[in-house]
Amino acid sequence: MQKNKPTFSGSDVKKYFLKKNLKKDLPSSIVVFLVALPLCLGIAFASGAPLFAGLIAGIVGGTVVASISGSQLSVSGPAAGLTVIVLGAIAQLGSYQIFLLAVVLAGIFQMVLGLIKAGTIGNYFPSSVIEGMLAAIGLTLILKQLPHALGVDSDFPGDEGFFQKDNENTFSAITSALNHVSLAAIVISVLSIAVLIFWPRFKKLSIVPAPLLVVILGVAGSLIFAGTEYQLRTDQIVSIPVVNGFGEFLGLFTMPDFSALGNPKVYLVAATIAAVASLETLLSIEAVDKIDPIKRVSPTNRELVAQGIGNITSGMLGGIPMTSVIVRSSANVNAGGRTKMSAIFHGGWLLLSLLFIPQIINMIPLSCLAAVLLVTGYKLTRISLFKHMYHKGWDQFVPFVVTIVAVLLSDLLIGVGIGMAVSIFYLLRTNMRNPFFYKIQDEGDKKNLRIKLAEEVSFLNKAAIQVVLTNIPKETNVIIDGSNSRYIDPDVLETIFNYKHNAYTKGIIVTLENIQKHYTVPKLTNKIVEEINN
C-alpha cells in the first residue's frame, strides 16, 4: 500500500519561505544597519540637524516605510541629496521645529503624488541611465570611502557630491588622505577588505556575516592600537549620542511647530523636499529592481505613499526627511537580502543600538565600515557591466557613460538629468529615422513609390517624412499607405494632405490608402486592464 503523502496548507508554505528567507534577511539586516548607522549620523550633521534626527529618520525608514512599501529590497533613510536643501531650509525658516512642520507637509504631498499615480514617472527612466547611475554610485562609493579607509577625511560619511563641505573635491580628498595616512586605519581597512572577499568562500563559516566579523576585528584593532602613537582619533570612530535612561531618550524627540501653518515659506520648502525626495526614491526603486536577483518589480505609486507616511512620522518625531537610498539598498542586495524583513530589522537594530549599546557602537572604526562600502561599490561598478552596455550599441553605451561622468562630477540628480537628456537625444534620433518603410517599382517611364507608415507616427517624424516627400522626383506615382498605423500625429497628417494637394504641379500622382483624417491616441493599456478585471 502506498503511504499517504503529507499535505501542506498555505500557511505552512508561507512559514517555510519566511524561515528560508529569514536565514538571509537577518544577516543582511546587520550589514545594512552597520552601513546605515554612520550615514544617518553624517547626513544629519551635514544638514545642520541634531544627530538624533538622522537616527530617527533611519529607524522610521526601516520600520515604518519598509512595512508599507511594496519593494522587497529597498532601504529608506536620510539621503545625501537632501543635505543642502535641509541645511538651507532650517536657516531660511529660522527654527528647527518649523522645519519639522515642512517635513510633515512634504510627506502629505508625497502621499498625494502616490494617490494620483505620479509614481509611473519612474517607468520612463531609460535602462541605460539607471545602469549608469548604479555604476556611478559604485565609483562614488569607492572614491569617497578611500579617504575614510586611509583614516584621513573631514568630510561626512555618505556625501555623494563632487564638491565637499571641507573645501575638497572627490579627487583632491584622496590626494590629501594619501599625504596624511593613519597606519591603524589602513591595517583595519585592508584586513576588513580581505575578510569581506575571502570569508564568504568558507561555506561552513559564512553563517557569521562577513561585515559583522569585520566590525569585531575593527573594534579589536582599535583596542590594540589604543595607547600607541597610532591610536585612532575620535573623528575616525563612529559616534552616536549616549542615552542615559528612558527619560533622557524621550527628551530627544522634538515636535513640529504647527503655529507656522500660515507661513508660505513652509509650503515652498515642503514642496521642494517632496519633489526631490520623490524623484530620488523613484530612481532608487528603479535601480534596486535592476539588481534584484529575483527581478521583482516594485509598485512605484505605493512607494510614494509609503515614503509620505514615513516623512510624516519622521517629522512628527523630530527626524529629518528621507528617501529610498540606493547605497543602503545595494548593500542589502549584495549582503543577500531577500525580503523587506531585512530593512525592517535594520530599523530595529538602529533603535536597539541607541538604547542599549551606544558605548560598544562608539568603538567601531569608520575605516572598517568604509571597507564594506568599498566592496559594495566594486560590485556595483564591475567591469562586466561596462562590457555588457558596450555590446548593446552606442545608443545605450553613450548615455550610460555620460551618466557616470555627470554623476561623478556633480551629484545624483544633476547627473541623471544630463544622462536623460543624452538618452532622449538618441531616442529622438532613432524615431526620426524610422517613421516609414518604402518600396520603389518601375512601370515603363514612371516610377511607383509605396511609402508604408509605421505603427506610431509622432510629430518627431514630421521632419523626416517632409524631407522624403520634398525630394521625390517629378512624374512619380506615390502611394502613402497607413494600414499599419494605429496613430498618426495631426502635424504629420497635415504634411501628407498638403503634399497631395500640391504634388500635381510636379506631375506627381498621390494616392492615400487607409489614412484617416483624424486619429485618437489608443488607450490599449486601460483596455487590457479592463478585460483582465472582467
Automatic annotation (TrEMBL):
<feature type="transmembrane region" description="Helical">
    <location>
        <begin position="348"/>
        <end position="377"/>
    </location>
</feature>
<dbReference type="InterPro" id="IPR001902">
    <property type="entry name" value="SLC26A/SulP_fam"/>
</dbReference>
<keyword id="KW-1133">Transmembrane helix</keyword>
<dbReference type="InterPro" id="IPR011547">
    <property type="entry name" value="SLC26A/SulP_dom"/>
</dbReference>
<feature type="transmembrane region" description="Helical">
    <location>
        <begin position="266"/>
        <end position="285"/>
    </location>
</feature>
<feature type="transmembrane region" description="Helical">
    <location>
        <begin position="26"/>
        <end position="45"/>
    </location>
</feature>
<feature type="transmembrane region" description="Helical">
    <location>
        <begin position="75"/>
        <end position="92"/>
    </location>
</feature>
<feature type="transmembrane region" description="Helical">
    <location>
        <begin position="177"/>
        <end position="199"/>
    </location>
</feature>
<dbReference type="Pfam" id="PF00916">
    <property type="entry name" value="Sulfate_transp"/>
</dbReference>
<feature type="transmembrane region" description="Helical">
    <location>
        <begin position="397"/>
        <end position="428"/>
    </location>
</feature>
<keyword id="KW-0472">Membrane</keyword>
<feature type="transmembrane region" description="Helical">
    <location>
        <begin position="98"/>
        <end position="116"/>
    </location>
</feature>
<feature type="transmembrane region" description="Helical">
    <location>
        <begin position="305"/>
        <end position="327"/>
    </location>
</feature>
<feature type="transmembrane region" description="Helical">
    <location>
        <begin position="237"/>
        <end position="254"/>
    </location>
</feature>
<keyword id="KW-0812">Transmembrane</keyword>
<feature type="domain" description="SLC26A/SulP transporter">
    <location>
        <begin position="22"/>
        <end position="391"/>
    </location>
</feature>
<feature type="transmembrane region" description="Helical">
    <location>
        <begin position="206"/>
        <end position="225"/>
    </location>
</feature>
<feature type="transmembrane region" description="Helical">
    <location>
        <begin position="123"/>
        <end position="143"/>
    </location>
</feature>
<feature type="transmembrane region" description="Helical">
    <location>
        <begin position="51"/>
        <end position="68"/>
    </location>
</feature>
<protein>
    <submittedName>
        <fullName>SulP family inorganic anion transporter</fullName>
    </submittedName>
</protein>
